[in-house]
Design goal:
The complex is a heterodimer. Chain A is mainly α. Chain A has helices at 21-50, 63-88, 92-122, 131-158, 164-167, 169-199. Chain A contains six helices and no strands. In chain A, helix 2 packs antiparallel against helix 6 and helix 4 (131-158) runs antiparallel to helix 6 (169-199). Among the domains of chain B are: 291-535, Cytochrome C Oxidase, Chain A, CATH 1.20.210.10; 539-600, no CATH class. In chain B, the strands form two sheets. Chain B has a two-stranded antiparallel ribbon with strand order 1-2. Chain B has a two-stranded antiparallel ribbon with strand order 3-4. Classes of the chains: A mainly alpha, B mainly alpha. The interface between A and B is large, with 42 and 50 residues.
């Protein structure tokens, strides 16, 4: 009987709000994510201003690798948009290509990140080493979990989820847009993390 | 009844577990939330009943033998409550009542069941997400309860889990300690609230039926909308704080551990550099809006019940709506009034003191509007109305006694005394809980098709009213005498508290009395379900809002025909109308239309 219920505005926009349901939902979710990372950045500010000394991340973090990672994420955001645009142009094959690229970029990001992590552990830098390292591992770790979450969703939409293209192409396109909004947000968090942790001079 | 037959034809063929366990129907999920939350409320209440024994008769053995035996020698050595166990009960009472009881009942149950009905939707905007938010809540509850059974027992640092105490108690990096499980449980509960409120907000904004403009929304829906925003925006910082406390406990970081911390005469072997105040800021950034999460749905319920039983429109509907929105905004900038004594500095104190005084204005506007709504009404004193009426003075006492706590200088004396306990329990217990009971009695006929027994209901009401005040009123006196809220012996060791100590017994006996009275409600609840009087109408209270335009109980999909809204939510006793209520979905009678069909 679940077919009997028609939730309106799943694929079309409600005229007076100009939104379909999932788009409003994801923006609300992203608002809460802003608060989550906002609290962590506030922690950074509070603990840094309260500390006598603060390390300069570039002295022991790997800036070249992180720069590459920044590029990888930016590229993945572009391919994400391309995958959505491909669906708008009714081209499922191209969508699959770009979505696959997005997922691969995510994999690449995680590989580079784990190389960085491994190196830190080898040189004896743990979350318990200093407040800086605690913040570094907590924030990049939480960001990494968000990347993994996004990749799981993207992989579903690349694989089994794409069957929806045959039955309800409009709604499927919306799903890609929503997944894209989330993916851009995760990208954006890194754009803040990179300068704050790697580049900002110490005191 | 043709409507019932119509419903029979469409009876769905889903297997039992899809229909009742993993249902995506907002009404089933609402009922699941409601029953689970009521069980947790009762459980959390029982924890407090045990604490009250220790407070009234400190150091005496608990006279209930089987309970002592069940709890075991480690918790009750010789039948006397161990201090550590007392602390566990205190921490878990607060946590369970707030996060597993009242919020899931007010937001999860009432919000889930009623919001789609009142906006004329067939279901929530995201039914599967709705199901998962219930199950995530359920897992969070199980994790919380399981913490009683790990070695060292459950969390024992208060429901606020202040660092550094919560980080170092017990000192173990294991996940299976009370505090770590508390944090894990909280992450589940926060996730659940988040998913639920995204769903509620989207439903309200997107799924309102034709004609249901913003200013025609029932006040309950407005309250749920603002509550949803509070949950979406205030909970994540606590999630971040929980992650950091987890890192402190398990990975040895020092987010909340300052340099040079000495525990038990030994310097703690951590890097230091953290801030204990940081935890308090992040915690109260959630927990103050959380107070409004507790109270706003309650105000919404009271508004519905009052309008219905005074048979007249709410006084100042628009000012109610603007107040509740303003209240939502302000609740984000008052949190540090919980921290006046932490030495933040007088400038910050002055700021938060000012915002706190400002936030009392919209609360008073709401309360005043609700009281003025009674003026000139021909009031029906049924059980829901009695609870709703009692809400007004009880919440009033709770609110007014909060003002001295919001003033930094008065708070120096009152901080962390029983006065605080009295204050917020007046808001939450005879305040919110009474409103929730009003809601249960009011909507029970719609949910179950049966009407709760009126006499047992009145007994439940009057007993609860008397005993609630018996518990919480003396707390103001004890608190002003300077007794701290966290004492294991209830103040026996305080020389200055000796002449108020007898009140501990008054409070404890009232609490146990309140427990007995709740049994009446439980009996009434089950007796009505199995043998109660069936309602003969889909709209037994003759109400105007859309949930009463459904069959009883509403089928999957709610409405037989998608309704359309023609008027505001509280058009009672409209001059010139045939009956004293004009449902939102009934069009105006056209002139010359002699046989207005009324329904449909």
């Amino acid at each position: 009987m679940s077919t009997a219920i028609e939730i309106p505005y799943n694929s079309t926009e409600r005229p007076d709000t100009g939104l379909y349901n999932a788009k409003l939902g994801i923006w609300l979710f992203l608002a809460s994510e802003v608060m989550l990372f906002g609290a962590l950045f506030s922690t950074y500010v509070l603990l840094r201003t309260g500390a006598d000394k603060w390390e300069h991340g570039a002295e022991f973090l790997n800036v070249p690798l992180a720069t590459i990672n920044t590029l990888v994420l930016i590229i993945s955001s572009v391919t994400m948009v391309m995958s959505w645009a491909s669906l708008k142009m009714k081209n499922l094959g191209r969508y699959k290509f770009y979505m696959g690229m997005t997922i691969l970029c995510g994999v690449g990001f995680l590989i580079i990140k784990s190389i960085e992590y491994a190196h830190k552990f080898e040189t004896g830098l743990w979350p318990s080493t200093s407040t800086f390292m605690a913040i570094y591992f907590t924030m990049t770790g939480l960001h990494g979990l968000h990347v993994i979450g996004g990749m799981i969703v993207n992989s579903y939409l690349w694989g089994p989820g794409s069957k929806m293209w045959q039955t309800d192409p409009e709604r499927f396109t919306n799903r890609i847009e929503v997944a894209g909004l989330y993916w851009h947000f995760v990208d954006l968090v890194w754009i803040f993390l990179f300068p704050v942790l790697y580049l900002l001079p110490g005191k | 009844m043709t409507e019932a037959q119509h419903h029979e034809e469409h009876h769905d063929e889903l297997p039992f577990w899809r229909h009742y366990i993993f249902s995506t129907d907002h009404k089933i999920i609402g009922i699941q939330y409601g029953l689970t939350a009521l069980v947790f409320l009762f459980f959390g209440f029982c924890l407090m009943l045990m604490m009250r024994w220790q407070l009234a008769y400190p150091g005496k053995a608990l006279p209930i033998a089987f309970l002592t035996k069940m709890l075991g020698e480690s918790r009750m050595p010789g039948g006397v409550m161990a201090p550590e166990f007392y602390n566990q009960l205190g921490a878990m009472h607060g946590t369970i009542m707030v996060f597993l009881g009242v919020v899931p009942l007010a937001v999860g149950a009432f919000g889930n069941y009623l919001v789609p009905l009142q906006v004329g939707a067939q279901d929530m905007a995201f039914p599967k997400l709705n199901m998962s938010s219930y199950w995530v809540y359920f897992i969070g509850g199980v994790v919380m309860l399981s913490s009683f059974f790990v070695s060292g027992g459950s969390a024992q640092s208060g429901w606020t889990s202040y660092a550094p105490l919560s980080v170092i108690t017990p000192q173990s990096h294991s996940l299976f300690t009370g505090q770590s499980l508390w944090l894990t449980g909280m992450v589940f509960l926060i996730t659940s609230s988040l998913l639920g409120s995204v769903n509620t907000i989207t439903t309200i904004i997107q799924l309102r039926v034709k004609g249901l403009t913003w200013m025609r929304l029932p006040f309950f829906v407005w309250a749920q909308l603002v509550t949803g925003f509070l949950l979406v925006l205030a909970f994540p910082p606590l999630e971040a704080a929980g992650v950091m406390q987890m890192m402190d406990r398990m990975a040895g970081t020092s987010f909340f551990l300052p340099s040079g911390l000495v525990v038990g005469g030994k310097a703690l072997n951590v890097s230091g550099g953290g801030s204990a105040l940081l935890w308090q800021h992040l915690f109260w950034f959630l927990a103050h809006p959380e107070v409004y999460v507790l109270i706003l749905p309650a105000m919404g319920i009271v508004a519905e019940v009052i309008a219905n039983n005074t048979r007249k429109p709410l006084w100042g509907y628009k000012s109610l709506v603007y107040s509740v929105i303003f209240l939502g905004f302000m609740s984000f900038v008052v949190w540090a009034h919980h921290m006046f004594l932490t030495g933040m500095g007088t400038a910050i104190n002055a700021f938060f003191q000012t915002t706190t005084m400002i936030i009392s204005i919209p609360s008073i506007v709401i309360l005043t509007a609700l009281i003025l709504s009674l003026w000139g009404g021909s009031i029906r004193f049924n059980v829901p109305m009695l609870f709703a009426l009692a809400f007004l003075p009880m919440f009033g006492i709770g609110g007014l006694t909060g003002l001295p706590l919001g003033l930094a200088s008065a708070d120096i004396h009152l901080h962390d005394t029983y006065y605080v306990i009295g204050h917020f329990h007046y808001v939450v217990a005879p305040g919110t809980l009474f409103a929730l009971f009003a809601g249960i009695y009011y909507w029970f006929p719609k949910v179950s098709g049966k009407q709760l027994n009126e006499f047992l209901g009145k007994l439940h009401f009057w007993g609860s009213l008397i005993f609630m005040n018996g518990i919480f009123m003396p707390m103001f006196i004890v608190g002003m005498a300077g007794v701290s809220r966290r004492l294991y012996d209830g103040g026996t060791s305080y020389l200055h508290a000796q002449n108020v100590l007898y009140l501990n017994k008054v409070m404890s006996h009232s609490a146990w009395g309140l427990g007995v009275i709740q049994l009446i409600f439980i009996v009434n609840f089950f007796w009505t379900l199995f043998a109660g009087r069936k309602v003969t109408s889909d709209n037994p209270w003759e109400a105007t809002t859309l949930e009463w335009a459904t069959p009883t109980p509403p089928p999957h999909g709610n409405f037989l025909k998608i309704p359309e809204v023609y008027r505001g939510p509280y058009e009672y006793s409209v001059p010139g109308a045939e009956k004293d209520f004009s449902p939102q979905n009934e069009p105006d009678k056209k002139p010359g239309d002699s046989n207005n069909p009324g329904k449909k």
